[in-house]
Amino acid sequence: SKLMWILKCYCFPLRHETMVSTLKSFKISGENVRELRFLLHGPVGAGKSSIINTIKSIFEGHQFINCLTASDLTGESFTTKYEKYNVGDVPFTFYDVMGLEKGQSKGVDTNDVISALKGHISKDYTFKPLDPIDEANRYYIPNPTLNDQIHCLVSVIPADKISMMDDEVIQKMKEIRAAASKLGIPQVVFMTRVDKVCEMTEKDITKLYQSRKIKEKCSNRLGVTMNCIFPVKNYSEETKANEKLNCLMLEALTQIVHSANDFVKKNSNQLKKE
């Protein structure tokens, strides 16, 4: 509720420390799974790489800018390889893929993203829009384990540019989400650039509860339920740590960690039975 969100905003310093401590001590509920794996996908310029930078900045105690980012939806993706990013000393790994674009000859091929979800692609694989990975490729993993698979799919959408997104890109995202559903992989949406939606959120990020219309629009276009959409803000112009920004990201991260862990636990138990 709005009241609960307001109360959270007044407790940012305490919540920040508590969430970081809880995540650092998190134990995965699955045998032979060393790390929870998250795959970020979305249109060019949505903020996939910036999310990784922000999360690494929170856990590593300094501004992390080693992950190159694209500036907007109309540019080209800086990410051309299947990049793996570890986060401090927590058992979470993020995978970044080439951005989705309009047309078959541009951006990441949806088949490559689906192969990555299944665990068939190893890090440093170079994406080729017209030539998705096959079994002959040296980066192809023929028999992926539960540890090789992706445990949670994160769709990244810019709040201020939802209406500008091409229908073809939206359709590609839906195809990837449909494949994840068949695999039983949990899915969420990280809605970036929420501070650009209105002057109120730009001045005070804690006013996000008033951005419900944007969440509804995102829900309608992607077919995602409202409770699976998490508003976040990435570090961009900031040069110092921002507890409000950190808490917003930590809230979203905590949710996907539990979703991924539930997936691992379920599949690990299934493997034991077999």
TrEMBL record:
GO terms for biological process: immune response. SUPFAM superfamilies: P-loop containing nucleoside triphosphate hydrolases. It comes from the Eukaryota. InterPro entries: P-loop_NTPase. Transmembrane segments: none annotated. PANTHER family: INTERFERON-INDUCED PROTEIN 44, INTERFERON-INDUCED PROTEIN 44-RELATED. This is G domain-containing protein. The lineage of its organism: Eukaryota, Metazoa, Chordata, Craniata, Vertebrata.
